[in-house]
């Protein structure tokens, strides 16, 4: 969060594009940052400690299943049948990717619970984000998320790991992953996601989460963490078909 804030704030400040938080919106930003990055990161990172990265990405990719129903329940958005079908197809593909060659499945219950909590938190995050999307640039929202998230994380970090800070080795092997997480994951990825949600709508944008396990599997294959199987290839194809079906139903979101 510190790296992300140091990266974004000067860019917005120097370009004159750092928008102040409007009256009555502070509570939304506090809740937004509390869900993501704070709670979501704790649950997702904790879950990945107990299951593989590719399986974790598959579970995270179930987020689009719940967002259309949440949007329909909270904001009374119309629930389109083709969207539900597309998400369902993607979930079938994800399920195929979780199976071993002998059709067995095994994973840590603790890891699954933490990742399931991350999914719920991501849905809540989306509902909050919709409230402020039309009032700020995506980069501004991302900047405040990171800054407020830093305030949430810092005391917890001192309590949990404060005694270990002196033992850290500030080497390239440590800084390179942190720089990547701070700049690309916590800033660029969120900025693009917020931009996509602003112009596509929450349901359509969230369906792209289904592509995460495809890229995760391909990367895992590239670094030797996974073995390619017919089920995994079939699952990737079904995920992409589901994404296509879901996107066929959406146009540009109408601002309220």
Secondary-structure element order, as H and E? HHHHHHHHHHH
How much of the sequence lies in strands comes to under 5%
Mean pLDDT: 85
Tell me how many strands there are: 0
Largest sheet entry: none
The total number of structural domains is 1
- Quickly give the structural class: mainly alpha
Helix content: over 70%
Rough outline: globular
End-to-end CA span:
32 Å
Low-pLDDT residue intervals, each spanning 5 or more residues? 250-256
Q: Which value, in Å, is the CA radius of gyration?
A: 19 Å
Number of contiguous helices = 11
Task: Describe the structure concisely for a colleague.
This protein is mainly α. Helix content is 73%, strand content 0%.
Structure overview:
- This protein has helices spanning 2-15, 26-48, 53-60, 63-75, 81-98, 109-132, 138-161, 172-200, 202-206, 212-222, 230-247.
- The chain starts with a helix and ends in a 9-residue tail after the last helix.
- It has eleven helices and no strands.
- Residues 250-256 have low confidence and may be disordered.
- It is 73% helix and 0% strand.
- The longest helix is centred in the last third of the chain and has 29 residues, at 172-200.
- The protein has one domain.
- Helix 2 crosses helix 7 (138-161), helix 3 (53-60) runs antiparallel to helix 10 (212-222) and helix 5 packs antiparallel against helix 11 (230-247).
- By secondary structure, the protein is mainly α.
């Amino acid at each position: 969060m510190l790296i992300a804030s140091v990266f974004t704030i000067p860019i917005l400040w120097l370009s004159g594009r750092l928008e102040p938080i409007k009256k009555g919106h502070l509570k939304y930003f506090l809740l937004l940052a509390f869900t993501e990055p704070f709670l979501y990161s704790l649950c997702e990172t904790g879950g990945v400690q107990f299951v593989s990265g590719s399986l974790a990405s598959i579970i995270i990719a179930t987020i689009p299943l719940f967002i259309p129903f949440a949007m329909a329940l909270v904001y009374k958005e119309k629930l389109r049948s083709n969207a539900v079908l597309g998400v369902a197809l993607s979930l079938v593909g994800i399920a195929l990717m979780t199976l071993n060659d002998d059709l067995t499945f095994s994973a840590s219950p603790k890891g699954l619970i933490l990742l399931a909590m991350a999914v719920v938190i991501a849905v809540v995050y989306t509902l909050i984000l919709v409230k402020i999307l039309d009032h700020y640039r995506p980069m501004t929202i991302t900047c405040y998320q990171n800054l407020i998230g830093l305030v949430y994380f810092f005391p917890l970090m001192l309590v949990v790991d404060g005694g270990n800070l002196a033992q850290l080795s500030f080497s390239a092997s440590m800084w390179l992953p942190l720089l990547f997480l701070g700049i690309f994951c916590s800033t660029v990825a969120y900025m693009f996601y917020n931009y996509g949600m602003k112009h596509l709508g929450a349901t359509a944008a969230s369906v792209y989460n289904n592509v995460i396990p495809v890229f995760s599997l391909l990367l895992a294959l590239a670094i030797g963490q996974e073995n390619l199987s017919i089920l995994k290839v079939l699952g990737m194809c079904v995920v992409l078909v589901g994404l296509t079906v879901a996107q066929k139903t959406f146009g540009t979101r109408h601002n309220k």
